[in-house]
Amino acid sequence: MARRGLLIILSSPSGAGKSTLARRLMGWDATLSFSVSATTRAPRPGEIDGTDYHFVTEPAFRKLVDDRGMLEHARVFDNYYGSPKAPVQRAIEAGRDVLFDVDWQGAQQIANSDLQDAVLSIFILPPSITELHRRLVERGQDAPDTINRRMQKSWDEISHWDSYDYVLVNDDLDVTEAQLRTIISAERLRRAQQPDLLDHVRTLQRQFEER
Amino acid sequence: MARRGLLIILSSPSGAGKSTLARRLMGWDATLSFSVSATTRAPRPGEIDGTDYHFVTEPAFRKLVDDRGMLEHARVFDNYYGSPKAPVQRAIEAGRDVLFDVDWQGAQQIANSDLQDAVLSIFILPPSITELHRRLVERGQDAPDTINRRMQKSWDEISHWDSYDYVLVNDDLDVTEAQLRTIISAERLRRAQQPDLLDHVRTLQRQFEER
């Protein structure tokens, strides 16, 4: 019996290094799959359908939600975003862990879904707000108002740190990546994640009885 | 605020490598402490009081049990064995994890004690019964009857593998040691094991408000 994969949720305020860490984890373990979000917003130049997002129409999005085909979804301004359930279910049934880059609201919806038994949630904290602010400013030519709104959103995200299983402070990307690997590797050693053990114990029992 | 240490329970049938692994873990991390059992049996040649066992009288042992001073205890033939609670409590309150080498009955008692929140239980399975039998035979000049009784006890122990958090098959000591390190390191990254995070988040909040 193949093990069922885990739903590994990574949340953090933007600028705390989450995307870089997710990319590094995908490079570390080729069996990890990444949950590509569906969205109703138009693709930006360079974005690839199926890789960056699944670009769908609003009726298609709504139908997925109505058919309980979304693990989590939210409306942000005029657009919808969500995590389609079908590819996640296929991956975990094939024994592959799935990585999610979602905010605290998405994390809560996934943690309350019918796949909640397989959820592992990790929050990444920034070393400081100064650093977070610096990264937001560096990122683009956003107006101070936009930066302020993002900082407010970041704080909102941080304030939910205490509903996650694991929490890491991303002082150093290499250290944090190693910690993420450690967490994922350990979780795979849980009894519940190793259905093959049952076969091993049955073999031991047969050997014991035939001895 | 210092984190409270974990109670790390290692169980396995004898001959599966548990003692070697426990010793290696103690060498890996000097902050780990080992729960030395108390016993009413007489010391054997070479055994050191306080290191191998705490050798106590039967009245002293009974008093500890009556005063709820034992995390777990059992009678084996005419002798009593148990894990005194006081040193464990001192260690975990100082933020040190404590390693226990106990059987499934001891593990269950500790898992039902008032320290249950801090318990992490790991079962080590042998690669095969043949191997387990070979190690028991190699170990000494025991009579076939004794070996048979030990094998029966080993199977009894194995049959409780499925009440542990983590289960490892000890095919290779180095691999199993690395897995144990991974599990302990990951468990220390759980939010509940990092009370200092609260200070960090408070600092982030102050920085956010003063920005």
The first-level CATH class of the domain at 7-34 and 96-210 in chain A is given as: Alpha Beta
Uncertain residue segments of chain A = none
Compute the number of helices of chain A.
8
Strand content of chain A: 15-25%
Order of helical and strand elements of chain A: EHEEEHEEHEHEHHEHH
Anisotropy-based shape of chain A: globular
Query: What name is given to the CATH topology of the domain at 7-34 and 96-210 in chain A?
Result: Rossmann fold
CATH superfamily of the domain at 7-34 and 96-210 in chain A: P-loop containing nucleotide triphosphate hydrolases
What oligomeric state do these chains adopt? homodimer
Binding site for ATP (chains A, B): 12-19
Enzyme class (chains A, B): transferase
Main location (chains A, B): cytoplasm
Family (chains A, B): Belongs to the guanylate kinase family.
